[in-house]
Each structure stands twice: as C-alpha cells, then as structure tokens.
Specification:
The radius of gyration is 22 Å and the shape is elongated. The chain folds into two domains: 22-135 and 260-326, FAD/NAD(P)-binding domain (3-Layer(bba) Sandwich); 138-256, FAD/NAD(P)-binding domain. It is built from seven helices and 17 strands. 23% of the residues lie in helices and 26% in strands. It starts with 21 loop residues before the first strand and ends with a helix. Helix 1 packs parallel to helix 2. With 330 residues, it is an alpha/beta fold.
Length: 330
C-alpha cells in the first residue's frame, strides 16, 4: 500500500495555458546543483536524453560557498562554483541538454507532465525529476550579504572546519540552531548562540545539550544589528540586548540557522509535502506520490542538506526514472 494519500487537485486551478511553443521530451530535470547534475549524468548515460533547466541559481547553494573540503574526490578541496562547473561539464559530456530558464508553473495531473518555463514555453515530459533545492533563510542585512562565504554561512557542517579553535556565533532558537551550535562547539573555541527571544524554541533535549556545553554561551534577548569585518573577512558582530544596549562580540564566523525554504511551491497542488514544504518521497526511493515524478536533493531532504547526499539522491532519481520509462510505452 502506498504511504501517500490520494491527492485531490483544486477545482479552482486555472486551465489557461501560457502562450508560446510546446516541446515534448522524455526526461525533464528541473534544477541544477549536485542533485540535478548527478541525475543528469546518470540519465544521459542511460540514453534518456535528459533536458535540464538550471533554475534561478545555476549550481545551487554551493555557488555561494568558497571552499568545499568534504566532498569525495577533491583531496585539496575545491571552491563551490568550480565543483558545480565540473559537474555541469560532466553532465554535458554525456549529452544532457542544459538550458537556462526557470520553471514557473506545473501541471502534473497526468503524463506527459507539463512544466512552464519562464512563463512562456511549455515542456511536456514523460518523466520529471525535481531538483529545485532549498533556499536558506537569512536575516536580510546588507553586511550579511557582504561577508557571505567570507565568514557568513548557513551550514555549520559545510564550513565549521574553517573556524577550528576560533570564536563563532550562531543565530536562531530552534532545533537547527541548537544542532549547529553543538556541532561547532566540538570544533571551535567558543560559540555564541544568539536568540532574540527570552527562550529557545528547540526541543527540551536539545536545549539541555546546549546548556550543558561549556563553550556555548547563550545570549537571550539579543538581536543582530550588524556583522563587521576587516580585509574582507568577518571579525565581529554588533548585537542589541533587551535593554537596548549595543554589545560587540569578536568572532571569526557567523552562522545563520533560522531555517530553509524548499523550492517546491509550483508543485504543491500535486505532490505530498511536509508542513514546511519538503517533498515527500517513498523511503529508499526518489518516487513521489505521482508515478513518473521524482524528487532529489534539498527539496526533499530536511535533515542532511549536504552536497554528497544530494548527489546520492540524484543518482536514485535517475535510476528510478530509467526503470519507470523502461516499463511504459509512450
């Protein structure tokens, strides 16, 4: 029995099709990054003639990361953009049709599935692989963007090693912030956990672990005002406490842990998602509740969100797609 309930499509959904050309493809991949490119490599080698639309951020979140040292096969490390370019070249080498463009609407009522690109062109696909990723939430400060990749990060597991034996700060009050703080506490000299409220939203067990860690200092009722730096790298953070006073903490790294938004909005009318919007897949597969539609990478992974795990699910999605197409006549 399927783990999914039967989805009902809203009767109010518009049936109006955008003006423009229509193209029919066998395998369509929406999104790039480690998941999308890996899916493309496997699909192309299986002669599925995949067409990929790279999306708003070609290469995904890794394009904002300076150094990647935990991806297998790069013993000296590699920059995020370089690694994504390598994956793109590999996908292209085997014949993937890689195109610029953003998926702006979908109709997954029946196969062939219809994806609207850039509000104009309709792609009809016998099989669809969704690799649209997730977008990290940030505070929205100008200084946050200024030091992105040079002290500001949204992934402690990815970048924590670069701050070994240094002081860092984590902003957030939920389980993600608690997990990031605990991970960093095992690497860094000191971790400041910045929480704007007078309490943590994290689960009881996570709160206890944070409070018990000697090198984590929790700063309740503190709001981040500005990240400061010298020579292009972070050197400190300016906070405002509950009394309205400004406080500076000298740090080398600033980690934002206020959550991620999965890029699944245009598929929500059709696919099962969790309460946040992560696409649900049948455990051990990349299959969604709709036959012929597969999901991989951060758009279906609320737990790990690593390049290597994204690549693994991209492989799964392509292999599941190959098996699906191999059993059907179109």
């Amino acid at each position: 029995m399927s783990m999914f309930k039967k989805m009902e499509i809203s009767d109010t959904k518009s049936d109006k099709k955008p003006e423009g050309e229509t193209e029919k493809v066998k395998c369509l991949i929406i999104g790039s990054g480690p998941a999308g490119y890996t899916a493309a490599i496997y699909a192309a080698r299986a002669n599925l003639n995949p067409v990929m639309y790279e999306g708003l951020e070609p290469g995904g979140q890794l394009t904002t990361t300076t150094d990647v040292e935990n991806y297998p096969g790069y013993p000296e490390g590699v920059t995020g953009p370089e690694m994504m370019e390598d994956l793109k070249k590999q996908a292209g080498r085997f014949g993937t049709d890689i195109r610029p463009g953003i998926a702006t609407a979908s109709d997954l009522t029946a196969s062939p599935f219809k994806i609207t690109v850039d509000d104009s062109k309709i792609i009809e696909a016998d099989a669809l692989i969704i690799a649209t990723g997730a977008t990290a939430k940030y505070l929205g400060m100008e200084s946050e963007q200024k030091y992105m990749g040079s002290g500001v990060s949204a992934c402690a597991t990815c970048d924590g090693f670069f701050y070994k034996n240094l002081d860092v700060a984590v902003v957030g009050g939920g389980d993600t912030a608690a997990e990031e703080s605990l991970y960093l506490a095992g690497i860094c000299k000191k971790v400041y956990l910045i929480i704007r409220k007078d309490h943590m939203r994290a689960t009881k067990v996570m709160q206890e672990r944070v409070m018990e860690k000697e090198n984590i200092e929790v700063l309740f009722e503190h709001v981040t005002k500005e990240i400061v730096g010298e020579g292009g790298v972070v050197t400190g953070v300016i906070l405002q406490n509950g009394k309205g006073e400004e406080v500076r903490k000298d740090i080398s790294g600033f980690f934002v842990a206020i959550g991620h938004t999965p890029n699944s909005g245009i598929f929500k009318d059709y696919l099962e998602t969790d309460e946040v919007g992560y696409i649900k897949t049948i455990p051990g597969t990349a299959k969604t509740n709709i036959e012929g539609v597969f999901a991989c990478g951060d758009v279906m992974d609320p737990h790990y969100r690593q390049a290597v795990t994204a690549a693994g699910t991209g492989c799964m999605a392509a292999m599941d797609t190959e098996r699906y197409l191999g059993t059907r006549k179109f």
